[in-house]
Design brief:
alpha/beta; 10 helices; Arc Repressor Mutant, subunit A; about 10% strand; two-stranded antiparallel sheet; 5-stranded parallel beta sheet
Length: about 240
């Protein structure tokens, strides 16, 4: 019989996911974690967890290394490949140094031996959930910035590229073939749409979006960030304002 999905898995990011094939150990871990006031979802295998995993969800994983089918290390690698930054706490009765090093290099928060020291596990979970909350907050803030950036017109994005490059209004106007007054008007619109109170704040917003991209980029044109050279400089057509 299929275990029903707890309702909080659909709407709460602060959940501790325990993946352990030994039923007694799994139940004991679940009881311990609940006793500390955390919400828990337990699974016997990685495949069960993945069938209910929501991309971008928060919380943390308490994960056995040795599991039937997909191993804990393989699940960790799969989640990382999918872009998940969910904190992972490994537990194992057969851990060795190379395995521990691999897990930690791949981003594991902690690697605990069985029998698992209760307080160490709870401390690690507390740290993992704090890390997850920070990551979720950062992701939400980035989404807001990207949605604001998506409202910019093509010309405003071109002006923004010049601003980020540190160019004066006169320089941006010359590059775009428009008047300096036109650049100033676009600049005011950009500041308003991005809800930026200062030029430094605007540049910081763009820097935050750029830092979240796999490659260094400057600004968004309603989707992925693009390099300034792709937008303004040689090789990029300039459309003059009418």
């Amino acid at each position: 019989m299929k275990t029903p999905t707890p309702s909080f898995l659909n709407n709460d990011d602060d959940v501790v996911y325990v993946i352990e094939d030994d039923e007694q150990v799994r139940d004991a871990l679940g009881s311990l974690i609940r006793s500390a006031g955390h919400r828990v979802a337990t699974f016997a295998a990685p495949e069960d967890y993945l069938s209910r995993h929501r991309r971008g969800s928060g919380g943390c994983l308490v994960l056995d290394v040795w599991l039937p089918g997909m191993s804990g290390l393989e699940l960790q690698a799969a989640l990382r490949s999918a872009g998940s930054d969910l904190p992972v706490i490994f537990i194992s009765g057969q851990g060795d140094i190379p395995m521990t090093v691999r897990a930690m290099k791949d981003g594991a928060l902690e690697f605990l031996p069985k029998p698992v020291p209760a307080q160490k596990l709870l401390d690690a979970i507390g740290q993992a959930l704090q890390s997850s909350r920070r990551a979720q907050r950062h992701a939400r803030e980035l989404e807001v910035l990207r949605s604001r950036c998506a409202t910019l017109t093509e010309r405003e994005r071109q002006v923004l590229a010049g601003i980020v490059a540190g160019k004066r209004n006169k320089q941006v106007a010359a590059d775009l073939g428009v008047s300096e007054i036109t650049v100033k008007i676009h600049r005011r619109h950009i500041m308003s749409k991005m809800s930026a109170s200062s030029l430094a704040g605007l540049v910081l917003m763009v820097a935050r979006m750029s830092a979240a991209e796999p490659e260094p980029r400057y600004f968004a044109d309603g989707g992925p960030l693009r390099k300034e050279s792709d937008v303004l400089w040689p090789g990029s057509p300039v459309h003059h304002d009418r």
